[in-house]
Amino acid sequence: MEITTIVGIVIxxxxxxxxxxxxxxxxxxxxxxxxxxxxxxxESQQPIIPRHVRDQLKVEDADxxxxxxxxxxxxxxxxxxxxxxxxISLQEESVKVEVTEVKNQSEITDTVVSEKLPDLKTEVxxxxxxxxxxxxxxxxxxxxxxxLDAHLHEQNRVDDECALVTAESFIALNIIxxxxxxxxxxxxxxxxxxxxxxxxxxxxxxxxxxxxKLLFSVLKLTEEGTEGFDLETLSTEEVKGLACxxxxxxxxxxxxxxxxxxxxxxxxxxxxxxxxxxxNYELTPQLRxxxxxxxxxxxxxxxxxx
Length: 306
Description:
The two termini are 79 Å apart. The chain has 2 domains: 3-25 and 47-117, no CATH class; 149-305, ZipA, C-terminal FtsZ-binding domain (Cell Division Protein Zipa, Chain: A, 2-Layer Sandwich). The protein is rod-shaped. The protein contains 9 helices and 9 strands. Helix 1 (3-24) runs antiparallel to helix 4 and helix 7 (253-271) packs antiparallel against helix 8. By secondary structure, the protein is an alpha+beta fold. The model is unreliable at 69-81 (pLDDT under 50). The strands form 2 sheets. Strands 1, 3, 4, 5, 6, 8 and 9 form a 7-stranded antiparallel sheet that branches. Strands 2-7 form a two-stranded antiparallel sheet. Helix content is 56%, strand content 14%. Belongs to the ZipA family. This is Cell division protein ZipA. It is found in: Cell inner membrane. It is a single-pass type I membrane protein.
């Protein structure tokens, strides 16, 4: 509640109380009392009559004709209008008018305040919004953007790895050690050295430079065929060889095949081994070009049926 409203209400209450006191106050009798002290003038040795009583005595002397003065005086007093009552009524009306004006002013004040409040709220909200906009920093957006990019890259990587399950065909290269069995610890070090990372299907995967596209994957060779890696036991195992394979169709097949051939040759040199194609022939330059064209010219069976 506004301070002006409270002050107006207090003033109205005070005015009403004063008006009620004036209404119920008994008018003072102007007639001289017999018990009042009579004052004597020292010079004239006559009683001093109050001025309001003196005026009444003059009126009585002018109107008196017969000894029936008391009755005529009573009649005249009855016929005289009650000025005190009229003054009280006027004061009551003025009090009511002032109270009404105070109420009207308080209502007008409340109306003005209520009309201004929505505007003030709108301005405060807009000011707060502008402050928030000003505080936005590009660095925060860049941090969130980098997190989002990392998440998207990770999602693309998972999608590519899962695409191995639905691949229509593969081109494989086998890496066999010539003289001795390859230890699991050596195998792990070599794979990590040439940028392969352990992931889905218990394979080591190689991605492109920005890490957004799967190029090829690697499994280990056993007597029964190929098998996934178990990192908990790999350091104590012996590995016969490695199998690199490229899933077809592939969105960047030329880059994927060349990268697979290059890394297979580096690993073979590292472990003193040899690279064989998927038919167990040593990979010569002629066979490399043959399988390269096979990968590039591969068309999806879905596209052929379409």
